[in-house]
């Protein structure tokens, strides 16, 4: 997890491998943190996330999404690779169900770096955020499918 107060950005990536036992607790903690911080921009990196079970999908639709749409979010980005079809369909279903309540912009990207560019309007803070993330997590975290995330060398400064 990464937070930038100046941008109002919360970046989240699953770090528990295939173990989904703490998923609901983690999802509730993300909501509480986003509420406390009055987060405006959220990046959910779904590329390291295991397949969401049907039970967790139902829980998200009835418990998590109704709370998410109450937050002061302006933009939400989901980074999800095309090979993650199961989770893409699960997320699409959740969004379709909550669509009448969603007041923020939702976009999909394959990887996090271009997602951050769009989410933060190419902020000059991005190189610092990427360096901070990479210092803690490394540039390439293994995904749930064994693939790695995009290298930060794709960052393009507009300066």
Dominant shape: globular
Class derived from helix and strand content: alpha/beta
Strand order of the largest sheet: 1-2-3-4-5
Averaged pLDDT, please? Answer: 86
The value of Rg in angstroms is 15 Å
The low-pLDDT segments are 141-159
How many beta-strand segments?
5
Query: Fraction of residues in helices?
Result: 40-55%
Q: How would you portray this structure in words?
A:
The protein is of the alpha/beta class. The chain has helices at about 25-35, 55-70, 85-100, 110-120, 125-135; strands at about 1-5, 10-15, 40-45, 75-80, 105-110. A 5-stranded mixed sheet has the order 1-2-3-4-5, covered by helices on one side. The relative contact order is 0.17.
Quick synopsis:
The protein is α/β, with parallel strands linked by helices and 159 residues long. It contains 5 helices and 5 strands; from the N terminus they run ββαβαβαβαα.
Note the main attributes of this structure.
159 residues; globular; 40% helix; 5-stranded mixed beta sheet; alpha/beta; 5 helices; disordered C terminus
Give a topology summary:
Elements: E1 2-4, E2 9-13, H1 23-37, E3 41-45, H2 54-68, E4 75-79, H3 85-98, E5 105-109, H4 112-119, H5 126-137
Parallel strand pairs: 2-3, 3-4, 4-5
Antiparallel strand pairs: 1-2
Helix pairs in contact: 1-2, 2-3
């Amino acid at each position: 997890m990464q937070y930038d107060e100046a941008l109002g950005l919360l970046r989240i990536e699953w770090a528990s491998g295939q173990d989904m036992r703490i998923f609901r607790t983690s999802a509730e903690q993300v909501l509480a943190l986003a509420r406390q911080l009055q987060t405006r921009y959220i990046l959910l990196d779904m590329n390291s996330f295991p397949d969401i079970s049907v039970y967790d999908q139902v829980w998200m639709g009835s418990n998590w999404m109704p709370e998410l749409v109450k937050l002061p979010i302006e933009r939400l980005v989901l980074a999800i690779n095309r090979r993650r079809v199961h989770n893409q369909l699960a997320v699409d279903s959740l969004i379709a169900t909550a669509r009448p309540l969603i007041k923020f912009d939702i976009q999909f990207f394959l990887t996090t770096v271009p997602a951050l560019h769009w989410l933060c309007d190419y902020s000059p803070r991005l190189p610092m955020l990427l360096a901070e993330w990479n210092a803690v997590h490394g540039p390439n975290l293994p995904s749930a499918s064994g693939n790695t995330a995009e290298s930060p060398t794709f960052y393009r400064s507009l300066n």
